[in-house]
Amino acid sequence: MLRHIAAFFRSTAPLLALACAFALVLPQGVQASSRIKDIVDVEGVRDNLLVGYGLVVGLNGTGDTLRNAPFTQQSLTAMLERLGVNTRGSQIKTANVAAVMVSANLPPFAPQGTRIDVTVSALGDATNLQGGVLLVTPLMGADGQVYAVSQGSVATGGFSAKGDASSVVRGVPTNGRIANGAVVEREIDFKLAELKTLRLALRNPDLTTAQRVAGAINTFLGNGAAVANNPTTVQLTVPPSYAGNVVNLLTDIEQLRVEPDLAARVVIDESSGVIVMGQDVRVSKVAIAQGNLTISVTETPQVSQPAPFSNTGQTTVVPRTSVNVDEAKGRKLAMVDGSISLKELVDGLNALGVSPRDMITILQAIKAAGALQAEIEVM
Length: 379
Prior knowledge:
The protein contains 8 helices and 26 strands. The longest helix is centred in the middle third of the chain and has 15 residues, at 207-221. It is flat, with a radius of gyration of 33 Å. 23% of the residues lie in helices and 33% in strands. It has helices spanning 2-11, 13-25, 28-32, 70-82, 207-221, 246-253, 342-351, 356-368; strands at residues 34-35, 40-42, 48-57, 98-106, 115-122, 133-140, 146-153, 155-156, 159-162, 167-170, 175-184, 197-202, 226-228, 233-237, 257-258, 265-269, 274-277, 282-283, 286-288, 294-299, 302-304, 316-318, 321-326, 334-336, 372-373, 375-378. Helix 1 (2-11) crosses helix 7 (342-351). A hairpin with a 5-residue loop joins strand 6 (133-140) and strand 7 (146-153). The protein is of the alpha+beta class. It comes from Parvibaculum sedimenti.
């Protein structure tokens, strides 16, 4: 097995040499470092989720069946009453109305009058929202207050068509969007310029990365301005020179570059066989043997007939079964040197034709043996 791995690396040596040459030409700092704005979020500067319940009208017979969706009928009756039409006690039959949930993200510091996109999703048994119009729908936040109002024509990315014998559906026709379909009516009050301290939250928590972010800020502003409180949070004290001008402070800080540090981790998606690993993953010295027991059963039934012109006997089907067992005896135990990285191990296993499923099993077995110096995360 190791001979195959060595042969594989010798065959790819020219490509590796070319890649190394490009790596030497490119600036190392540009490859490794990231801007602070790309790895942290400022506490308080975030989106807010909005949700509302409304009605989509004007559908071409693809709306809710009112007898199956009583909430649609109640909403339709209440809406008509608000418009001066009394339908209490009467039976409404229409397939052109659908009850929907409307959701949107309210950007930070969005002023009144700003337009935002909304997503419309069918709530009942409607089959298609194409061509429908969403009526005025208030959008509320988690506190129950109305922050935006939505209305407009729904655009769907899917379609459906059917006949008496067959039907076709592409995408999800019961889900659509309205571009700029909501108007912000209430602004969330957050006085960023008056803050005395700021908290920067790392998107990928890590102690080393938090310390490097704090160090880069202190180098720019002076010692003591930033402190890494935990793997997720860096607390920043606004210097006197930036008092009342936090926006300029954040503008200057977010352009600073640091090199994020990542934990050694192997992420495995067993459903699709995808394996993703970090560059710091290492394998200690370990012996590996991989073999599969394959049993194949083949049925070849034969027909048995009596002799010609025979008055006795009858035609019967005689079963014939062939069983083959492959124990993969040619595969032997191989020693993996502890100096190689996990990438080199996986490349060698790929060269030997090991399937992703078997590779996942091998990695999990190496981890169980204590030879994989990384964390395995199975999705």
